[in-house]
Specification:
By secondary structure, the chain is mainly beta. Helices cover 5% and strands 44% of the residues. The chain has a single domain, classed as Inclusion body protein (Immunoglobulin-like), CATH 2.60.40.
Length: 135
């Protein structure tokens, strides 16, 4: 059982200019040694095991831009992420625990982001997934 951080790096200005997050967001996790692939792309495959704690965070490329995760949409049979706030701040992140083994299947998910002053969240169209460890 380990904690795996999944970070989103967003070009907020680019996503707002295009009214689309595709091509303006990149994902990485701290489990490359554990088999995760697609680091720094929109197609991250995070290798997980039952009991792993997942933490989703967001980083903006532009220091003056605002972005936050609005929701992490995933099959609740495998993981139920919930929003948390760092103590003493208004900075949020999402946390969930892998509930059961992922075997011979990928569990796709999407992330909705708040970006800039846009009222409606922007949803990823990328190919994100949790995958089981290959034996």
């Amino acid at each position: 059982m380990k904690t795996i951080t999944i970070s989103s790096v967003i070009d907020v200005v680019g996503s707002l200019a295009n009214d689309d997050i595709s091509g303006s967001v990149y994902f990485m996790d701290n489990n490359k040694a554990g088999g995760s692939i697609g680091q720094g792309t929109e197609n991250l495959r995070t290798v997980v095991e039952q009991g792993d704690r997942l933490v989703w965070t967001v980083i903006c490329l532009e220091c003056e831009a605002y972005s936050a995760i609005d929701s992490v949409d995933i099959n609740k049979e495998f993981c139920e992420p919930e929003k948390k706030i760092y103590p003493g701040t208004d900075i949020s992140y999402w946390v969930g625990t892998v509930k059961k083994p992922i075997v011979d299947v990928e569990v796709p998910y999407s992330i909705k982001f708040k970006a800039g002053t846009r009222h409606e969240p922007i949803t990823t169209t990328s190919n994100l997934a949790l995958v089981g460890k290959k034996i």
